[in-house]
Write a structure and sequence with these properties.
single chain, 338 residues, alpha/beta, Rossmann fold, UDP-galactose 4-epimerase, domain 1, seven-stranded parallel sheet, 40% helix, globular, binds UDP-4-deoxy-4-formamido-beta-L-arabinopyranose
Length: 338
């Protein structure tokens, strides 16, 4: 079966392509390479022994999207990762975010609903919950006003899909709400490649460990948490990638109960920033240089998933511990810099 993976050269996309190919799917990657490197293709090929088809396309170009679906008229499903993802940048360039994240989504769905039957997996985010009232967060937690245009595009994206599913019984869709992905493939052939100064905690830690950054700034230690630092649910990217495959299979095999469903994808375990630092120190054997600074505007205090629905309905469960995920992130960092 042929599966289209948009943003398939990105961090989560590339790991998902590997898992799809391992399961025997034929993959077509679409990426505009605006935040990804074509070399990732070689990494995927080295792991799976199979080079995916690659189409360099900007999904904001409506005609190009239509032509893509005509060229690959036998596509059974789409996993849609392609999107801009920097929270800060989205505040400065909202138009870019609405065009990239909503415009492209609309064009892909427009092409997809013309098919007799189509399966669609959407890359959503725990960011849709904002600061949830209760932990762990279930899928029924209310959607809070988003802090940034990026967050709004994920909320809107879900609504766009839900609205289209109501009138398109041929379209089956699942939105996966990711918590905090980290780590790299155990082969160390693919991993996270942040452009410029990393905004996310884990790549900042590993870059500090390797000496590219002088020290980590811990954004606040006066939060109402056990050690005062923010709590998140860090999930190994390979576990996350596997969740996409099982979600897609649910749709392809007609196992879904509704034609639009939502699942949290996390480990269910919250870890504080200090715990993440300690994990790095354990797996690397290094002391991390860090200092406590002011809180970062827009940060929620804590967010970790209730994964009961994904565990029971999808039959999927995250396997890796924080230390295992950190070890892979650290091995990747060392490889990239060697
Ligand atoms: C984690 C924790 C920071 C950097 C991001 C996206 C969000 C979502 C999940 C994707 C926080 C602290 C960080 C640093 C620090 N999903 N931190 N020093 O904010 O949970 O959310 O991933 O779409 O949309 O924004 O992740 O890695 O930025 O931060 O102390 O230099 O680490 O305050 O508590 P976040 P993050």
């Amino acid at each position: 079966m042929k599966i289209l993976v948009t943003g398939g050269l990105g961090f989560i996309g590339s790991h998902t392509v590997v898992e799809l190919q391992n399961e025997g799917y034929q993959v077509v990657i679409v990426d505009d390479c605006s935040n990804a490197d074509e070399k990732v293709l070689a990494g995927i090929t080295a792991i799976t022994g199979k080079e995916p088809v690659f189409e360099k396309i900007d999904l904001r170009e409506k005609e190009a999207v239509g032509a893509l679906f005509e060229r690959h008229s036998d596509i059974a499903g789409v996993i849609h990762f392609a999107a801009s993802k920097a929270v800060g940048e989205s505040v400065e360039k909202p138009l870019l975010y609405y065009e990239n994240n909503i415009g492209s989504l609309v064009y892909v769905l427009k092409a997809l609903v013309k098919k007799e039957k189509a399966s669609f997996i959407f890359s959503s985010s725990c960011t849709v919950y904002g600061q949830a009232d209760a932990m762990p967060i279930t899928e029924n937690a209310p959607i809070k006003p988003a802090e940034s245009p990026y967050g709004k595009t994920k909320q809107m994206g879900e609504e766009v899909i839900s609205d289209i599913c109501k009138v398109s019984p041929n379209l089956q869709a699942i939105a996966l709400r990711y918590f905090n992905p980290m780590g790299a493939h155990p082969s160390v052939e693919i991993g996270e490649l942040p452009v410029g100064v990393p905004q996310n905690l884990v790549p900042f830690i590993t870059q500090t460990g390797i000496g590219i950054r002088e020290g980590l700034s811990v954004f606040g230690n006066d939060y109402p948490t056990e050690d005062g630092t923010c709590v998140r649910d860090y999930i190994h990217v390979v576990d996350l990638a596997k969740a996409h495959v099982v979600a897609l299979q649910r749709l392809l095999h007609g196992k879904n109960e509704k034609n639009y469903e939502v699942f949290n994808v996390g480990t269910g375990k919250g870890s504080s920033v200090m715990e993440v630092i300690r994990s790095f120190e354990r797996v690397s054997g290094k002391n991390l240089n860090y200092k406590i600074v002011d809180r970062r505007p827009g940060d929620v205090i804590e967010a970790f998933a209730d994964t009961t629905k994904a565990n029971e309905v999808l039959g999927w469960k995250a396997q890796s511990s924080l230390d295992e995920a950190m070890r892979s992130a650290w091995e990747w960092e060392q490889k990239v810099r060697s």
